[in-house]
Design a protein that fits this description.
Blueprint lengths: L6 E9 L4 E9 L13 H16 L5 H4 L3 E6 L1 H5 L11 E5 L7 H12 L3 E4 L6 H6 L5 E5 L8 H7 L5 E5 L4 H10 L3 E2 L8 E4 L11
Parallel strand pairs: 2-3, 3-4, 4-5, 5-6, 6-7, 7-8
Antiparallel strand pairs: 1-2, 1-8, 1-9
Length: 212
């Protein structure tokens, strides 16, 4: 008898005119008080990505989660450099590279393979690190936490856009912040001011999967 619930967090990513470009999808645990993701092991982070992909694509599939809109999923180093299973839906699935991934030669080779297969690439939590700059020529989207603008400001936005990527304002939590981000020229917007993260319970529609 199945007891584990299959949960999925979802938050919209919006254009300047208020249309939904896509959704970022998150791991959500059915158990209380999980450790913050920053304290997870690599294996736990890999398992979270696997859970999001399985919960999104199994059963009735991605259309029941996001329609025909793009979906942004956090990818760990293992998914970039190893032969781990990735659903082949490059017209919708955006590979979001988390900030903990160091863009060494193996990661760069993996990013190029994914681009050659048609996948779009997003850089998460861009603050201009050398490793992140190395990814810029391959990025379709660059996401900036608006709380970092107090220090970095417009030059960070200009750097993020320097190779033609669309720049996403993350953590937009007030109307005044949204207005400021629009004045700074962001292309896309994400945060509680536009939509809170909702939790989808996919337990009834996603088949269980045995591991190991």
């Amino acid at each position: 008898m199945r007891t584990d619930r299959m949960l999925l967090g979802r938050q919209g990513i919006f254009t300047g005119s208020g249309d939904v470009l896509g959704y970022e999808l998150y791991f959500r645990s059915p158990h209380p008080a999980p450790l913050h993701v920053d304290h997870w092991t690599a294996e736990q982070q890999n398992a979270a990505t696997a859970h999001v992909l399985h919960t999104t694509f199994a059963g009735p599939g991605v259309s029941s989660v996001a329609g025909d809109r793009r979906i942004f999923v956090n990818f760990t180093r293992s998914y970039l450099v190893n032969d781990l299973s990735i659903p082949y839906l490059p017209e919708q699935l955006v590979v979001e590279i988390v900030e903990s991934v160091v863009a060494d030669d193996a990661v760069m080779a993996g990013v190029r393979r994914l681009r050659d297969r048609g996948f779009r690439i997003a850089i998460d939590d861009f603050i201009g690190l050398a490793s992140q700059r190395r990814l810029l020529p391959y990025a379709d989207y660059v996401k900036i936490d608006v709380r970092d603008l107090d220090v970095e400001g417009q030059p960070l936005i200009d750097l993020a856009r320097s190779h033609g990527a669309q720049v996403v304002a993350e953590c937009v939590e007030s109307e005044s912040m949204l207005d400021e981000c629009q004045s700074l020229g962001f292309d896309l917007y994400q945060g509680f001011a536009l939509e809170v993260t909702t939790v989808l319970d996919r337990t009834a529609v996603v088949p269980s999967r045995r591991c190991g």
